[in-house]
């Protein structure tokens, strides 16, 4: 593990927040950009209106026509949790609106590649599909959409990915990131965009006097899950969507598939936090897309009471398989990284990793793990077939990964067959023969763009906590004050503690008993530690970077520190 620095947030003005909020929480909110008391009210009425979304009226007209004419509609999704929740949302909501012929189609990650394809359009045309609705993809599907229009198939694109310079010839495109869209939040996940299209449809049908209409709040559990799982920034609008969805799940009002996933993940719906969506439910849905067919995840989200549990168990089994594959791949990657001699400052500004036997469905997770280890952008690649490689990229703050790939493409057009993604994550396909040249160009661009500050491994802390601030009620306040997530981070703290006891549990988890400087004993756990470094018998004092959490075990609840970083002091 590379060396790191802990920096504490400065004290900021929080006088605009209600004085009845404890000072610690007021500071946490203010440091995360909350600028008014109104932003703490996460009611559905605070959501941005759909009217400023470009093409929203065109999209509604397409859907109204489909309902009126009872057209045959296909939802074309993506093979991750955002794509799965978007697909399940659009299929089930349109059915609730009265559409009788609506199904879904999602490409297989291993055999079909990403997004709406020419082959998929050919197949849908042979099935007499009249309207294609893309969710969480489609903004770059020029050829496929052009073919669909030639075959007299209408196309509605709903997406959130960054658009290319030339948009595809769809009948309507709803994407807050497209040029000319004045929707104030550019951070909607794919499922959020789909939800907004449905909101607009419901509004139009209500104005026509059509009754009854479905209550779209019933689908907010899906919106919350997809939003958190896709790691989009939790701006105020997204926090409302997530909070409203979590509230429904806590109240036992979620769909059977989500309840079943919570059960196999051993999560209590009543105690659900946003992190549970990202670390417990999302990976189980993603496992289907990585190792098998994301259709299994979609079917689980669409399932009734009778078969939801069976589908959730299948997803859980796939997730266990994914973990096993990932562990082996991560060990290979860490071994390769060790040879970079990071401690001598010789790690590249961008790390490219490739192993012929790696599983293409798990390379994104490996890239993310290695990025956390070395604090550099990482591209992990695996064989797509005998001729091509498939890559998954993860970036560090301040370096836009899709822009980096765009720059590499401009330096040598054709070096990649295709690429796309976001600031922090992207995907690509290239010929094996181009790997060495690609690695050279990608590292060169990263070296030009990365500052020394960005290369430093820095963690931000909200400071030290007193013993009273680590009491049950205070920690519960922090956990329920979210939802926390991307760009609205969960509170993190640091401090020095006396080390009372230390032992390895499981394979690589370090269980600790600590004494707070004010005398109280605390439990702590650090996951996936280097077992060659810990435990260390001669260490008596440690510095921790940690998140306090409530640990529920055998009917009892106690405070436990979730250790993010640990360093021996003496």
From TrEMBL:
Keywords: Coiled coil, Exonuclease, Hydrolase, Nuclease
Coiled coil: 301-335
Ranges for domain DHHA1: 351-447
One Gene Ontology biological process: DNA recombination
InterPro entries per the UniProt record, alphabetical: DDH_dom, DHH_sf, DHHA1_dom, RecJ, RecJ_OB, SSDNA_exonuclease_RecJ
PANTHER family tied to this protein: SINGLE-STRANDED-DNA-SPECIFIC EXONUCLEASE RECJ
Protein name per the record: Single-stranded-DNA-specific exonuclease RecJ
Species name: Idiomarina ramblicola
Gene encoding the protein: recJ
